[in-house]
Amino acid sequence: MGSGLLIGRDGRRAMMGGVLPLDKRPGLTSGDAPRRRNWVRLDNASNIFLAARSDADPKVFRLSAELDHDVDPRLLQVALDATYDRYRLYHAVLRRGVFWYYLQESDLRPLVTADEQYTCAPIYRADQRNLLFRVLHHDQRISLELFHALSDGIGALWFLSDLIVAYVRLRYPEQPGAAADDTGQPGFSAGSGEDEVARHRALVPDSFAHYFRQRRNRTGTTADGDPENAGREVRTARSRVYRVRGVRTPDNRPRLLELTMPAAEVLALARAEGVSLTMYLTGLLFESVRLSSGGLGRSRTLTASVPVNLRQFFPSTSPRNFFATIRVEHTYGEGADDLGSVCRRLDRQFRRKVTPEALERKLRRFSRFERMPVLRIVPRPLKDVILGLINRGSNRGLTVAVSNLGRLSLPEPADPHVGRMLFHVSAVRPQICVMSHAGLLTVSFTSPFVETGHVREFARRLTADGVGVTVAAARVTETELAEVER
């Protein structure tokens, strides 16, 4: 497998080069009087990211787009400036209070940097006041990396899409719709309605609070009075959960492999089994882990965590985190274990848990837990310990994670100039991230381990079913990195 990714060993220059400090900006000096800055508490999901982050999993994810030309860094910077001004949330830095973390507006400005470090390197550092995202470029690729406490995948896609549209309009000014608006900001048309959306993408309270902290639910009945258990996470007691183990990468960079294939061919395989694409890929990942394990032993249950975009059930234009995770599982040796049967079982589990009613019950329980009086007075460092323990307990019950951002179409004039779009995350366990654009489906594998047997089995099954798969692998071991330097 060849390397389709830029690999660097020293991330220091890119990490420090992504923000223009306040005292270096034209027209501002350290003697200027400070202004009052807006702030907002982190939502519950974001607090867990703070407590659960580690050297191996800094809770960073990356979205990338490949264009039909080498990226012009100067134009990309202009596009970033315009896009950044429209997303007030992305101006925020993370602050620590006595009882909670909060986001606070800043005067920092982001700088486009070359992609010279390994993917999903840490962004948030407790001893630094820095922006929680960075924009990178390499050859034909534009990448956006975010600290997950700032936004989720959908919110990040909004930002990246607007950034690409602004850039393409600058790069191809002769195309329709490429003119700057009357404010001089390139890439956006005045009076298009986008300003109204931008106002909603501000530093405002989270959508979890809007929907799940009210007394009564959407149907008018009390959530506490509902006796049903639909949507509750039922964990098997008949077999232990299998956990993937291996040799960790030497410097905590994730092992990354990108698989690219025709989206229509894989979707046809899912439809032939009567399941969604996400559950087909989850079942295929289970089978790949089983085949590469050398035998599951007594731990015959494989489980997956699957995030669900809540905006499709509870309308929201906020780019802040607004998702829930669904757990699905299959125990081998207790019924049919062929791929189709596994996928259909997973699909039935998933569909039961992603109804608006089941999601609302689940998220109201989390909200009640967050608002418990005893937890509200617990100092933040102790909250971190408690949430960290809860997260580690949850991790023990998971084998893999699967995240699908779906099919993306970019606004004109950007869409014809963009080919593959890619998505991947730092990971504490093997994970796949999926998205498609321009008829190409990308499945990005990340793992804290150097072993790639499950990726090999995954690709083998697809090619055996007639799907054309290409693979690009990032180098992570000392031997692999030495090959880059020679």
From TrEMBL:
Region (Disordered): 215-234
Protein name (Swiss-Prot/TrEMBL): Alcohol acetyltransferase
